[in-house]
Amino acid sequence: MRTLFLAALLPALAVGSAAYAKDDEGCTRAPKEQWLSTEKLKTKLTEQGFTVSKIEIEDGCAEADVKGKDGKETELHLDPATGNVVEIDD
Which residue in 88, 31, 38 sits closest to 62, CA to CA? Predict the structure, then answer.
């Protein structure tokens, strides 16, 4: 019975650890010296058609509150070194 319980628990621990590691990492591995300024990130998003209401860099990830061409408000997580979107929160 104990073996069966441990066999069921191990995959859950592995998934949980992977999720924790992902949350603990920023959006980039690039050194801070290579990060774009918030103004440059805002310019990149504006060029892509977004209206940016707020942008900040926190814990190695840039977060931007934007409104798309369709008027939908979204929070984007960006790689601060490239400006590429790595996650979208609706």
Answer: 38
Q: What is the pLDDT of residues 38-82, one digit of tens each?
A: 999 999 999 999 999 999 999 999 999 999 999 999 999 999 999
7 or 30, which is more confident? 30
Kindly report the three-state secondary structure assignment for every residue of 21-75: HHHHCCCCCCCHHHCCCHHHHHHHHHHCCCEEEEEEEECCEEEEEEECCCCCEEE
Contact 58, 50 (CB under 8 A): no
Written as six digits, the tokens of 60 are 């190695």
Distance in angstroms (rounded) separating the CA atoms of residues 6 and 49: 51
Query: Residue 26 and residue 81: Cα distance in Å, rounded?
Result: 11
